[in-house]
Amino acid sequence: MKMASDIHGSAFEINEVENLIVGAVDTALAAENVLVAARSFGLGGVMIGGIRNNPDEIVELLKLPRYTIPIMGMCLGYPAEEPWQKPRMPQRIVVHEEVYHEDILAEGLAEYEQITSDYYTKRTNGKVNIGWTHQMAHYLSHPRRVHLKNFIERQGIGLK
To answer: Nearest CA to 2 among 54, 11, 95, 114?
Structure first.
């Protein structure tokens, strides 16, 4: 984007939050397409958000240019065993027709908590026995990866 702007002598207004969102969405869409294609060849894969734990090291290792932000990594390979697919949320609380149906969310999330609690209990032989809503409540209870804002700014993107 910077090069395209330079080629045409146009302003490079990268600092808008919209540009960051578009870049993150485009990255996720491209990654999902790679994963779908890999699966068509019998490969397994997983997205790695932990790449954002050490973004400066990733930039150095991969020689990423200014204005580049590592969003996710991806591991691909042939599974050594049959992986357990984490259950998905009940479709009725994910897909809404015409309007958002907030009135059904609590019931659906309670159902999903039980389903995922059973899943994690079985998958971890009892070491983890809480479900997704419990895990997300904990995850969102404190700031995470607070270093990313400064990293993004060092990469040349001053969020407005």
So the answer is: 11
